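ok so I'm stuck.
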Amino acid sequence: MKKNNPEWLGPDKWLQLSNNADETRVKAALSTVSPGIKEFAALVSPAAANLVEQLAQRAQVLTRKHFGRTISLYVPLYLSNFCSGGCVYCGFSSDRRQPRRKLGTEELKAEISALKRKGFEDVLLLTGERTPAADFNYLVKSVKTAAEVFHNVTVEAFAMTSEEYEKLAGAGCTGITIYQETYDRKLYSKLHRWGEKRNYDFRLEAPARALQAGMRNVGIGVLLGLHDPRSDAICLFQHVVQLRKKFWKAGVLVSFPRICAQYGDFKPGYEVDDRLLAQFIFAFRICFPDMPLVLSTRERAEFRDGIAGIGVSRMSAASRTTVGGYYHEARLRKDATPGHAGLRKEVTARSAGNLEKGQFDVNDTRDAKTFCSAMRRRGLEPVFKNWESVFRGR
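replied:
not stuck anymore, here's the structure
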């Protein structure tokens, strides 16, 4: 690649240029018709923090142009908290002392029924890193069960081979979510102490393998707070560009998870406040106008309400990060009636003993109905279904 082409610069150089950017460069990036890495570096720069309202206005125009006034909804469903990995920042890490369990077939069906009653049609199935108790075959079986009920089934689990992704797609899975966590190799090695996830390149190349194997979309992201957030954001941008260039018929989604409280009490090395997170979201929207941007219930309700429809077009709602959380929640509500005090007490005790320690703390604890009402008050329409299961095989 010729050196007069700015794409040849590495992430460290782009980070330096971002940190040295001034407001003139930021305004020039805002007015660019087809912004690239040069403009993105300016939009995530410290100087752009002073112009975040202008970024928000530009992002909102593009979001409404490509997504209208809609918010696509999905819900995470945790299949298992068994894990063979040694991620220092995760509540599921194998050295965390907590009860381990996975959903059996009937338990999974109970979870699915609980979510269907809430109106969801788009489910994300999650597990820890690969273990004998929750292996690939278990995941395939779970996907098949969920695909019989939901129109859209995606997976967030361990990195897989091309052959495994092909089998997963054949079972009814339409996409995967897999975060690189951080693109800094040295830090990545320190954070992932043991397990298959230590293989940086195998995980980095997983989205490409999934798309090559027939998945319709992949979701990627970094865990903001682990490393210099601007550096990771720039690397994430470059990863998106590579995937969209090679797999232009497929879809790429970007999520923006921040480190939040989890069992293990890992403390992040970098602070990512609301303003910086919003700046990143706006920058990605400006550079990728038609790409779905995702925000989970990790974030506070107030922040999610404020950012919805401005840059973000897809959100989770009514989330539980425990195994079996939805069914037990339904049981508690059903049993919270006169004459069922004893049963309610029993379910509450069982939940506290086996289900309390999720992968991370949920900050937006609203139920689906309350969340949807909040969106409608802001002039947005929540969408539970935007995919028809009949198209999976095409």
